[in-house]
Amino acid sequence: MGYLLQLLPEKHIAINLDVKSKRRVFDQAGLMFEKSLKIGRNHIFQAFLEREQMGSTALGNGVAIPHGRLENLQKSTGAFIRTQNPIPFEAPDNRPVSMFFFLLVPAKATELHLQILSELAQLFSSAEVHKLIGKSNDLAELCKVFSNWEEYA
After folding, report:
1. Residues whose CB is less than 8 angstroms from the CB of residue 141 and which lie 6 or more positions away in sequence, other chains included
2. Are 88 and 52 within 8 A, CB to CB?
């Protein structure tokens, strides 16, 4: 546990983003990563889209964890976007999604990738953590919740 502390810098958090489609939220995540990773957002967008075509990354309850692998990435990184309005996302509960945790991992980081996804699933399954992340408008507080989510669960 504790991988999220290294994954999510405050500059990778956007709240109340006004987007209306899956493609737009993927594009916004790509732009966010492009600025910090110096990797073209189209390459990042494509990694998310390819994974999504294999099956929806929505967990249900308004949450999705789009993720992708990149050959030239040195270490795993994440971003969190909460949209102003929920977006249709083929979730298992058929509910739209407003909370997105984007994850990029190096192409060969299989075990770490699975550990991070497992931790994210646990985080979002906590009703208290889900509520805090869904309501807070304070970036520092969101970073704290993601970094120490087990304290709130």
Report:
1. 132
2. no
Token pair listed for 152? 């709130």
Per-residue model confidence as pLDDT tens digits over 75-125? 889 999 999 999 999 999 999 999 999 999 898 877 777 888 888 888 899
**Cβ proximity of 110 and 54 under 8 Å:** no
Helix pair 41-54, 22-37: axis angle to 10 deg: 140
The domain tally of the chain equals 1
Give the model's pLDDT for residue 151.
79
For the purposes of burial, counting CB atoms within 10 Å of the CB of 112, is it exposed (0-12), middle (13-18) or buried (19 or more)? middle
Helix (H, G, I), strand (E, B) or coil at 100: strand
Q: What is the pLDDT of residue 111?
A: 79
Residue written as token pair 């299989």: 110
Q: Which domain holds residue 143?
A: 4-152
Cα gap 49→131, rounded to integer Å: 28
CATH code (residue 68) = 3.40.930.10
Catalytic residues, by residue number, are 67
